[in-house]
Amino acid sequence: MFAVIKTGGKQHKVAVADQVTVMALEGAAGDKVSFEHVLGLVDGETVQIGAPYLTGVTVVGEIVRQARGPKVIAFKKRRRKNSRRKRGHRQDLTLVKIVEILTGGAKPKAEAKPAKAAAPVESDAPAEAAAAPAKPRAPKRAKPASE
Hints:
Elements: E1 2-7, E2 10-15, E3 19-23, E4 32-35, E5 38-43, E6 46-49, E7 58-68, E8 72-78, E9 83-89, E10 92-102, E11 113-114, H1 127-131
Parallel strand pairs: 4-11
Antiparallel strand pairs: 1-2, 1-5, 3-10, 4-7, 5-6, 7-10, 8-9
């Protein structure tokens, strides 16, 4: 038996005991999450396809750990202009182990939270730096009149 779920804007084919890496979800290691957006379900000879989602089907998973993806570097260069920009990015990810696939409107045994995207991480900058008033700017100089 396997199911196709949608989370984080992506679709994942999952079966019981699979470990899948999805976009960041709220929760700590050991927390249960449930995925209600099930697009399809295959159980032996039976195939169910949702329009767009199946009702009464839930996939339950357990968060194994919160992780970060590999560093991706975006490098832009404009030739002969002495202009370049280099930016790096690491995506927040969650490793989830699929515990069970429930059909027929069954509820999870343990309390599982619906899968929600994690809140954005706030910067580590001190709060007083953000609250400090901006320095007044010097007035612009007037251009000299050309004769």
